[in-house]
């Protein structure tokens, strides 16, 4: 095109009216994200530039889109609470939408949020498994933070809980209270959370020259925990501790041990993971467990998104520590004189 492109040229190429093209370029009214993308694409293709367009595109709405694949709010609600604590201090608010784990619905929600003029997106998972990054054409250049489930693109910004650190701490604690015959009951082997927690546990075993008596994988369920605990005692009568990779598994293991006359924690100590009240605090005995620190993941995600909006983007994976909550299922037993000479010593306080 020999002459300078006009707004009418952009509208014609995008197959929309001049009014719609103007609204899309100036980010006014509620133009659909799909239409806005087509207009922006046409403007870029023609080399159309407008100072008022540039100015308006950098105006902030004060809204952040939060898209979750969580079905029941177990992950999304505490993460939203954490994000809002940070966003509120910067006069931002979050819009929460659930994709129910369906990519097509996720894309539709992004279109809706972009049409509302959100400043950025936080994408929340519920498995810890890595996920494909969002298509930049879908997000229209909005900054994106991936929370709990990391992006497969190492250049993206992802915030996750430190499952490797939790696994390492679990075994260190069990050794410190005198347990020596320790087994691990895990969920499905294809879950990154299971692999990472086992990896952390193995690192501590190696560090102190120990090894687990068994590592069993199956399902994230009470039924599996109960069945596995009975099997462990049958095959390893000296079993004195179990690291369960979820609270569901841990509560099932406690029930299985009770059914065969084993006391928790006197005979067998149990550690879970997730600090899910329904299982951890509502169990008998109550469960020592790891909290995924989801509220902190929400705060960090929101802060990193605000940093990106300020021109200071973060990249790579940031791990948030999972604190251990000590309850009745690992109450330390008295140490014998022989045990006290070992390399692991009971912590005080």
From TrEMBL:
Cited SMART domains: HTH_LACI (SM00354)
Sections of the chain in a coiled coil: none
Keyword set, alphabetical order: DNA-binding, Transcription, Transcription regulation
Pfam family, one: Peripla_BP_1
Highest taxon in the source lineage: Bacteria
InterPro entries in the record: HTH_LacI, Lambda_DNA-bd_dom_sf, Peripla_BP/Lac1_sug-bd_dom, Peripla_BP_I
Domain HTH lacI-type residues, every copy: 5-59
One annotated GO molecular function: DNA-binding transcription factor activity
Alphabetized CDD domains for the sequence: HTH_LacI (cd01392)
Protein name as annotated: LacI family transcriptional regulator
């Amino acid at each position: 095109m020999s002459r300078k492109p006009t707004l009418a040229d952009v509208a014609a190429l995008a197959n929309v009216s001049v009014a719609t093209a103007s609204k899309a370029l100036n980010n006014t009214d509620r133009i659909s994200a799909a239409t806005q993308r087509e207009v922006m694409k046409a403007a870029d293709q023609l080399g159309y530039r407008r100072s008022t367009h540039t100015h308006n595109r950098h105006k902030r709405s004060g809204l952040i889109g939060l898209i979750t694949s969580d079905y029941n709010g177990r992950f999304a609600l505490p993460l939203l609470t954490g994000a809002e604590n940070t966003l509120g201090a910067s006069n931002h608010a979050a819009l929460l939408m659930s994709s129910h784990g369906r990519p097509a619905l996720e894309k539709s929600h992004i279109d809706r949020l972009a049409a509302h003029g959100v400043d950025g997106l936080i994408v929340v998972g519920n498995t810890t498994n890595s996920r494909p990054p969002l298509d930049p054409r879908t997000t229209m250049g909005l900054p994106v933070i991936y929370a709990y489930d990391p992006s497969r693109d190492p250049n993206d910004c992802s915030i996750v809980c430190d499952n490797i650190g939790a696994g390492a701490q679990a075994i260190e604690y069990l050794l410190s209270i005198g347990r020596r015959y320790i087994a691990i009951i895990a969920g499905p082997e294809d879950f990154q959370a299971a692999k990472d927690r086992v990896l952390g546990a193995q690192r501590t075993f190696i560090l102190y020259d120990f090894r687990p008596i068994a590592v069993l994988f199956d399902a994230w369920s009470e039924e599996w925990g109960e069945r596995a605990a009975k099997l462990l005692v049958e095959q390893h009568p000296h079993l004195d501790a179990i690291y369960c990779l979820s609270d569901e598994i841990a509560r099932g293991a406690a029930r299985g041990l009770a059914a065969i006359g084993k006391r928790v924690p006197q005979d067998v100590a149990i550690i879970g993971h997730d600090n899910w009240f329904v299982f951890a605090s509502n169990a008998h005995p109550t469960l020592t467990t790891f909290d995924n620190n989801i509220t902190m993941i929400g705060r960090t995600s929101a802060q990193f998104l605000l940093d990106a909006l300020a021109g200071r983007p973060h990249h790579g994976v940031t791990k948030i520590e999972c604190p251990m909550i000590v309850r009745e299922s690992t109450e330390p037993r008295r140490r014998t004189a022989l045990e006290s000479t070992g390399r692991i010593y009971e912590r005080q306080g």
